[in-house]
Amino acid sequence: MAASQIAYTGNEISPAVPPWLNKGDNAWQMTASTLVGIQSMPGLVILYASIVKKKWAVNSAFMALYAFAAVLICWVLLCYRMAFGDELLPFWGKGAPALGQSYLVGRAKVPERVATEPYYPMATLVYFQFTFAAITLILLAGSVLGRMNIKAWMAFVPLWLIFSYTVGAYSLWGGGFLYRWGAIDYSGGYVIHLSSGISGLTAAYWVGPRIKSDRERFPPNNILLMLAGAGLLWMGWSGFNGGAPYAANIDSSIAVLNTNVSAATSILVWTCLDVVFFGKPSVIGAVQGMMTGLACITPGAGLFQSWAAIIVGMLAGSVPWVSMMIIHKKCSWLQKVDDALGVFHTHAVAGLMGGLLTGLLAEPNLCKLILPRDTRGAFYGGNGGVQFAKQIVAALFVIAWNVASTTLILLVIKLCIPLRMPDNQLEIGDDAVHGEEAYALWGDGEQYDQRKHGWHASEMTSPSPYVNGARGVTINL
């Protein structure tokens, strides 16, 4: 057992420091929780606000802000124990509050996770897992920016958390049937990225497209702020994957290194493809490559050797690029579904590929550090071929459940609330929806008027294909 997991065995120092508490593990887990939380607040809030057209900056940021707050309250009232509590069904836990003192100050338990038993209180684990649930819904929001009725979104967030997210989390992480069967999802390639990408695409279908002018041209209103948000997302991923072992141990260190190696490799590959095929590097494209590299490594971040992380990064920077720039453009159905930020490509495609690569490249000795059974990828022989098949079946379950649950949730909401904003609001944007604008004033107290103040409409030459739809999609993150 790793030194960081050896609990203090003497008499308790105080009621706040029981014998089972490992201060190092607890400190790291709370730090990892904060890093993942920063990915959403303010990371994705900033990124969404800056990567969209100016008129949607406030609305996009607010959708992320609302989701973060709503998920936390639903999580502690009901959903944590649906995802990590006692079994109700093979794919679902029994919902109950996670608010009682006796529950939160006790030693954390994760059903079936015997290889890395936590040495800190349940309160730490409840918050850590909340940050994953929150970012999943915020990623999903990227598919429906610029047209989803904010009231429909406010209803959708708790319903999707209850009926979709908790099922995937319990099945793969909380001791459900996929976990017991041996499917691997180290830190959310399926539970988070595949789920958000598939559900985002499904939601985009049911909500409907943006107005024609927004689909044809959707330039970011602040690329430098977009980079700031992306930077918070990347750095926060060290907590995302480094916190998955539930301890400050060797596997956590491997996961952090592999995460960054994959992201850097993916950025370089994506940028090279942009230069080769489009003649110039794109900052937006580099951020997309960062995202796919991070999403793709996540299902096996602590289970890959670091040379394998480079392979994962190379595939993450090329396969989603092909799906986004070539397949999307040639597929009439994908062209009709308006996935505003291309979440399907950067999260569903990358997350699925990472899960399958885990079935191929999971290293046996690294698997022993976190998994309570003999596990290996097909590349290492033995039962690796069976592991790859398990990864396929788990992916199919996650895809099917998210398509079905997202569809049913939106159809129920549609009975009470229109899913799409009316056209008059879509033409105006933030001012019509919220009565607020991101950049309300211009010059000496004037209202910003693009006809008077906007230079780019008439002077911009050779615009990036990422902002005018020439590559089959508009902005893709």
UniProtKB/TrEMBL annotation:
Q: Which GO terms describe its cellular component?
A: plasma membrane
- Tell me which residues make up the Ammonium transporter AmtB-like domain: 28-439
What is the recorded membrane topology of this protein?
Answer: Multi-pass membrane protein
- Do you know which Pfam families this protein is assigned to? Ammonium_transp (PF00909)
Q: Where in the cell is it found?
A: Cell membrane
Task: Cite the entry's keywords alphabetically.
Answer: Ammonia transport, Membrane, Transmembrane, Transmembrane helix, Transport
Predominant location of this chain?
membrane
The UniProt transmembrane annotation reads: 27-49, 61-83, 126-145, 152-170, 190-208, 220-237, 257-276, 283-301, 307-328, 340-362, 392-413
Question: Superkingdom of this entry's organism?
Answer: Eukaryota
Q: Could you cite one Gene Ontology molecular function of this protein?
A: ammonium channel activity
Q: Does the keyword Aminoacyl-tRNA synthetase apply?
A: no
- Give the family, as the similarity comment puts it: Belongs to the ammonia transporter channel (TC 1.A.11.2) family.
Protein name (record): Ammonium transporter
Q: Which organism is it from?
A: Hibiscus trionum (Flower of an hour)
